[in-house]
Amino acid sequence: MNGFHRKGQDLYCEDVSLAHLADVFGTPLYVYSLGFLQEQYEAFDSAFAGIPHEVCFAMKANSSLAILNELALMGCGADIVSGGELYRALAASMDPKKIVYSGVGKTSQEMSEAIDAGILMFNIESFSELIALDAVAGRLGKKAGISLRVNPDVDPQTHPYIATGLATSKFGIKYDAVIEGYERAGRLPNIDVVGVDCHIGSQLSSLAPFVEAATKLTDMLTLLREKGFDIKYLDLGGGLGITYDDEDPPTAAAYGLTLTDLMKDKGITLILEPGRSLVGNAGVLLSRVLYTKKGTDKRFVIVDAGMNDLLRPSLYDAFHRIEEVKQNQREPEIVDVVGPICESGDFLARGRKMNALVAGDLLATMSAGAYGFSMASNYNSRPAAAEVLVQGKKYAQIRTRQTYEDLVRGERPAVF
Ligand SMILES: *Cc1c(COP(=O)(O)O)cnc(C)c1O
Fold first, then answer.
1. Rounded to whole angstroms, how far apart are CA atoms 198 and 235?
2. Active site residue ranges
């Protein structure tokens, strides 16, 4: 399935013209291909067919209910990082037994909600978190299943903001303190030690760092079993990269084969937490050109989507391909595609060669399915965009555009 492709000069999502969707729902608009999403999930899941496994979608990549719902229908679980994500996962009918809970700052309230929901396990990131979880579970009269998130000190060779398995990062428990951590966990009355976990970073473009981390984790598994811990789950996190521009990341099949080889005789259920690789290329952000203008040494194309809709270019200097929804034959020029936000860092692309654009042209910012809408904000009091899911010739609006009333909901003048 090619989720987005041209028919003549027009860009389509499956069998629906993007220009039509922009006319019906307005812009900025997120559009997703269900067929592509399903295909990515199936490819990922079947890559691990040789070993017991669970695919727990890292829902911070895209937490829209309809997307979660479709993934749940295919048997996918969730990797959550907050009580809000737990609420969404349950609202989307995700099986709690396929939910793992990651993140360095879980509150007691959030822990309690997750224990009540009956999730599979907590990925614990510090000793103090472990103590807090034991207390919460005790109050509820239940046991909480845990793994410790190991910081394997592996360089994933990615953007520093999304490298999480280096010794200098805030994530995980340092490798030489892990055994002690399990011994402490083993003494806590309301904690059930069930797994080992790591997540080394995002948008990885080679297998080597995964292999290095997996090897460190299986070494740890052997040590823990020698010490009598009954480890059932080995969670390798997410991080498989996608093609935004000319990156050539490993396929899900290659990733699965390599990891299955390392893990297949270890007597564990492998847990994977892919986010970006399932949804990244399943979505685009549509925007319309409002104005163009000539600066001192370049042209600006001002569109109606900004960093509040898609933060990745501003935050990570990330590259997203930008396509004209209807190809034009004008002369190419070098432009900055910028949004309406009052920040110089508000851009979707800089120094990009595109056929000359004029007001009214529609643009599709590609590869916007992951860390797109989920990172959106109301900065500059801009209502959140609408979202549409496409299946073949059919489409469904899965989120209505926010209204001005939505923007100020819950606010009021001070009454002292
Ligand atoms: C962000 C994150 C993921 C997903 O990463 P992707 O690169 O989107 O696959 C998985 N696990 C944890 C703990 C994360 O924080």
1. 6
2. 342
> How much distance in Å is there from the Cα of 155 to the middle of ligand 1?
15
Give the mean pLDDT of 84-103: 98
Buried b (16+ CB within 10 A) or exposed e, 199-234: bbbbbbbebebbebbbebbbebbeebeeeebebbbb
Could you tell me the pTM of the whole model?
Answer: 0.97
Residues 6 or more apart from 58 whose CB is under 8 A from it? 78, 79, 238, 273, 274, 275, 276
Query: Chain-centre distance of CA 27, in angstroms?
Result: 23
Q: State the CATH architecture for 34-279.
A: Alpha-Beta Barrel (3.20)
At 1, the pLDDT band (50, 70, 90 cuts) reads low
DSSP 26: -
Q: Which is the closest atom of ligand 1 to the Cα of 273?
A: 10
CATH 3.20.20.10 positions along the chain are 34-279
On the question of pLDDT at 322 being above 90, the answer is yes
* Helix, strand, or coil (residue 140): helix
Ligand 1, atom 1: closest residue by C-alpha: 58
Q: State which amino acid sits at residue 20.
A: H
Report the CATH number of the 4-32+281-408 domain: 2.40.37.10
Distance in Å, CA 85 to ligand 1 centroid: 14
**Ligand 1 pocket, CB under 6 A:** 58, 60-61, 79, 102, 199, 202-203, 237-240, 273-277, 370
How would you label 323-351 residue by residue, b for 16+ Cβ within 10 Å and e otherwise?
bbbeeeeeeebebbbbbbbeeeebbbbee
Can you tell me the distance from the alpha carbon of 250 to that of 255, in angstroms, rounded to the nearest whole number?
6
What 8-state DSSP symbol labels residue 280?
Answer: G
Residue 218 is predicted with a pLDDT of 96
